[in-house]
Write a structure and sequence with these properties.
Blueprint lengths: L1 H11 L17 E2 L6 E2 L4 E2 L1 E5 L3 H4 L2 H13 L4 E7 L13 E2 L2 E5 L15 H14 L3 E7 L1 H5 L5 H15 L5 E9 L5 H14 L5 E5 L3 E2 L1 H4 L8 E4 L5 H4 L9 H8 L7 E3 L21 H13 L4 E4 L2 H4 L17 H4 L3 H14 L7 E2 L14 E6 L2 E6 L5 E4 L7 E7 L6 E8 L3 E4 L11 E6 L11
Parallel strand pairs: 4-5, 4-14, 5-8, 8-9, 9-10, 12-13
Antiparallel strand pairs: 1-2, 2-3, 6-7, 11-12, 15-16, 16-17, 17-22, 18-21, 19-20, 19-22
Helix pairs in contact: 1-7, 3-4, 6-7, 10-11, 11-14
């Protein structure tokens, strides 16, 4: 910790005073007093994110408007994008982001050329994307530089300071900007680079939240939990299956990362920022593998949130790379044009997670596995959490399970089933609020027959999700 304090003092000398955040667009975010969740000054904030990594380089403005419109309608309120994917990052029309591929020298022009419509400056385009997201009350979570740039020495200790200053001075007054330092990279590599980039941005824009986007099956907390620039933790659970990892697999059990972060001190919020993407092959690079389905996307979201995550990020293979047939840049066996893939079933079902969490007092919700009296492993595991006057239990397979009652006040409580697939409700009835009660979800026990048991005090004004 002492090293981080010294680093904070050192980098503060290189940056200018913090600007005041502009009073426009979405309200700025902050960590709740209990250190577990995010909020604005008015209300708690549930992060429902989408990975649109290559949006800045693959889509023009009309296409970007379409993307934002659809995702807004589907309930997403955060979009995760790469600013620099490679040193050659450019707009769709080919205008480069950097001079000679140097992150310390952004390619900035004096404005758009009226004689060349569509050939706008890369940074003007990013300004526009941030503004258009703000108009929809959406946040833009930006990865300043993908991890490969540091691995290859393109982003180094020297230019990380210049690049961080440029970004913070340009976007530090945007209340809807969130920073994802790193970028699919190992936290223990190039730490001086990531620390300098993080400290530089944070010192100029302290009102904006920041985390670290780690490589698969790792978490930001493993390396940077106590870093002064890290406001919340992020883990990447995807994209390997139990079968691909063997007997000690943990990737599909993404709830484990949330549980571990929940137990750390100092207390910080946590989220799965990259689970297995819908329609991407198991393991990404292994041929002839099955693809992750909507049911898997739902499971990752519900498991991590029940385990204490403050929200969840969804991803779809074709959308995250903005795939178009015939494109030479296609990866991971992409097979559906991005604008068609926006309507993937999992994308349309993510809103039901947000709706249920927001329908109840969420700022004091805590994970509580002691509620489940007969838990299983892997797909048979039931994840539970509770808040003031309510309790949730999520079963991915719809298997019957036993729950310990009495976590909410009252001699009797209302019990209902909530469907993560369509947001519908099925009443169970009023039950005694003591002892152990056996619950049998509707339908047959099988993968994807997922249900959430919702127990609450029926006399309270809560639990109106989808109604």
């Amino acid at each position: 910790m002492r090293g981080y304090i010294l680093a904070a003092a050192m980098f503060a000398a290189f940056v200018s005073p913090a600007p005041v955040l502009a009073d426009e667009g979405p309200a700025s975010l902050r960590v709740t007093d209990n250190g577990r969740y995010l909020e604005t000054a008015e209300k708690p904030f549930f992060w429902l994110g989408d990975t649109a990594w290559l949006l800045l380089s693959r889509l023009g403005r009309e296409e970007t408007e379409h993307y934002l419109t659809v995702r807004e309608q589907q309930g997403f309120n955060v979009v995760q994008v790469m600013v620099l994917h490679t040193p050659q990052m450019a707009t769709k029309s080919g205008v480069p982001a950097l001079q000679n591929g140097d992150p310390g020298k952004p390619h900035v022009t004096k404005g758009n050329d009226p004689a060349k419509p569509g050939e706008y400056d890369f940074w003007d385009h990013l300004d526009w994307v941030v503004q258009r997201a703000a108009a929809r009350d959406m946040r833009v979570a930006m990865v300043p530089a993908w991890g490969a740039l540091a691995d290859e020495g393109v982003l180094d200790f020297e230019n990380a300071g210049d690049y961080g200053r440029f970004l913070a001075e340009r976007y530090g007054d945007k209340a809807n900007v969130i920073w994802l330092n790193g970028g699919d990279t190992r936290g223990e590599r190039n730490t001086r680079v990531w620390e300098r980039l993080g400290m530089t941005i944070k010192a100029i824009a302290p009102g904006q939240l920041m985390t670290f986007h780690p490589i698969g099956r790792t978490a930001s907390s493993w390396q940077y939990h106590e870093a002064p620039w890290l406001d919340f933790n992020m883990f990447q659970s995807g994209h390997r299956s139990y079968a691909q990892e063997g007997p000690h697999a943990r990737a599909e059990d993404n709830w484990r990362y949330a549980a571990e972060d929940w137990a750390r001190t100092p207390v910080k919020p946590t989220i799965d920022g990259e689970p297995s993407y819908e329609n991407i092959p198991h393991g990404l690079h292994e041929e002839n593998q099955p693809r992750w389905q909507a049911r898997d996307a739902r499971r990752y979201g519900w498991w991590s949130v029940m385990a204490g995550a403050f929200g969840h990020t969804y991803g779809e293979n074709n959308v995250m790379q903005m795939f178009v047939a015939g494109a030479p840049t296609a990866n991971f066996e992409a097979d559906t044009r991005w604008d068609m893939a926006l309507q993937a079933p999992g994308a349309r079902q993510m809103r039901f997670l947000r709706q249920l969490i927001e329908a109840y007092p969420m700022a004091q919700r805590v994970p509580d596995q002691s509620l489940i009296a007969d838990n299983g492993v892997r797909y048979d595991r039931v994840l539970a959490s509770r808040g003031e006057g309510y309790a949730f239990a999520y079963s991915y397979t719809g298997r019957p399970f036993k729950m310990r009652m009495g976590s909410t006040a009252g001699s009797a409580v209302r019990a209902r089933w909530y469907s993560p697939r369509d947001g519908s409700w099925q009443a169970i009835g009023t039950i005694q609020n003591d002892g152990v009660h056996w619950f049998d979800p509707p339908g047959e026990t099988q993968e994807g027959n997922d249900w959430v048991l919702v127990i609450d005090n029926a006399s309270k004004d809560m639990g109106s999700a989808g109604q």
